[in-house]
Amino acid sequence: MEAAGFELEAFRAGAWKPRTRPGCFEGAGEDAVGWVADTQKKIGLEGMVEVAKASHVETVLNAGLKRVWIGARTATNPFDTQEIADALRGCGDIAVFVKNPVNPDVDLWQGAIDRFRAVGVTRVSAVHRGFSFYEKSRYRNLPKWQVPIELMQRIPEVPMYGDASHITGCREYIPEVAQKALDLGFAGLFLESHINPSEALSDSKQQLTPNALCELLRSLSIKDIYAESRSLQKELEQLRSQIDVIDENLLDVIAERMAVVEKLGEFKKEHNLTILQQPRWEQIQQIVSEGAKNRGLDPAFVEELFQLLHQAAIDRQS
Asked: Whole-model pTM?
């Protein structure tokens, strides 16, 4: 299937599905591996399944499959990852896709990738599926784009794929996350599809019908502003995206700060305290000045910035 310059590289169909709680659908196991192998022969497209232990690897190899992916839970555990890597030792023709660990730990992610490269697996790719968190968000997993960006900078020779379905957990948000991944120069996308999502036994809310998948692929664009300097443009977009992510984090921090400021204002009012606490403000100025110097920042710029924040805090409390 091709649409808007995209080509279907492989089909992904899990055989073993790790679940947070028992009693949920955990896949059809070895039978499913056989189904994937049969489908691969019929449609002429390589299939892949998730492997979480050495016995899974043996089953997959015996079925003639050439692609596997390592789930977030497995990538989080170096012992599990090494066990699978050892089972694939010398299998240079096997393609391994390593999802990011559950937590945003770029060292752990790179370490998982390095374990497969160290045993002779040459076709290793990274998969960004977002990170678990406690707070509520419209996404199922926080993208934290700065983490895959850093990994791409560390090991640019390892392709990065974006699992837009798993990040969003909701088909409504898949287009924006998929486009963001392409804008960052990702090599491709993981997208989930089901002929009838409402009947899917797992993750039904994040799956697209085949027609919706085609429409999505047609709507996505691969930006190529300066074709003669593609590598330069890619690096530029990555740096800009880092700034965008940091700016979003800054706005979140400012909003959080102002929420605390309101509570502080209520406390001062309740206890008949003045809004301006001059000794406290002088303490903040000293901390900010020293902090700016320690971080190689211009103290005058940082002090001015905090003066604006301080004034906004006084206005809010007033």
From this structure: 0.71
